[in-house]
Design brief:
Length: 213
């Protein structure tokens, strides 16, 4: 998002920034709140929680947080919370917008980057809503398995309660989804390890099956 900002200008934009370290579950900003800062995520993950029962999604180190509200001047459309301990830099929105008003070419690059990011988020949420809970879980595990074939062991990058949030379900529903996938050779341990007996078979299921939640 800041690729078009010259190094000297970046240093200027960082003047007056706030460095924050937040614990697990801490609120970064609330839905409906005014966008006072643009956040740069240095370490950890942030969970974006849209209103209602929409699936949630995560931002990781290197991502910006809250840019859609800052750049449009609108209130935040979702709540953002720390998923584990996080380290952030908070840039004052007023300083950033004043800079962009006099650097139109940089503003265009930032808006283009934001649009691409939002398209990806909308695609992910749309796909999640169209799948059953078991299919969502299968797709997620396949993404972790990558190009593997045959037997594979993957490790969940975060706790199962956070995985449930990401997939748009509660922990009990996630447990039932894992149970449904046992017939497809998926075995989850009590830790972060998940064994897949045959990635190819699971991939066929992810493409074609029609379990109901």
């Amino acid at each position: 998002m800041f690729s078009a900002v010259p190094a000297a200008d970046a240093a200027t934009l960082l003047e007056g920034h706030l460095a924050q370290v937040l614990p697990d579950g801490a609120e970064v900003f609330a839905e409906g709140a005014a966008a006072e800062f643009l956040f740069l995520l240095l370490e950890g993950e942030i969970l974006i929680q849209p209103p209602g029962a929409s699936p949630q999604f995560r931002l990781t180190a290197g991502d910006t947080v809250g840019e859609e509200a800052v750049l449009t001047g609108m209130p935040h459309a979702a709540t953002a919370r720390a998923a584990g301990s996080v380290s952030l830099i908070a840039l004052p929105a007023g300083k950033l917008m004043a800079y962009l008003e006099s650097h139109f070419e940089v503003a265009i690059v930032m808006i283009s980057a934001m649009a691409g990011h939002l398209r990806e988020q909308v695609r992910e949420i749309t796909e999640l809503k169209m799948q059953s809970t078991a299919e969502r879980l299968a797709s997620y595990l396949l993404a972790l398995a990558g190009d593997a074939t045959g037997r594979a062991v993957v490790r969940l990058p975060y706790e199962k309660r956070h995985l449930a949030d990401h997939l748009g379900m509660d922990p009990a529903t996630l447990s039932r989804a894992f149970a449904k996938l046992r017939d497809k050779g998926v075995v989850a341990s009590r830790t972060d390890k998940v064994e897949i007996a045959d990635v190819t078979e699971l991939r066929i299921y992810g493409d074609c099956a029609a379990f109901t939640a």
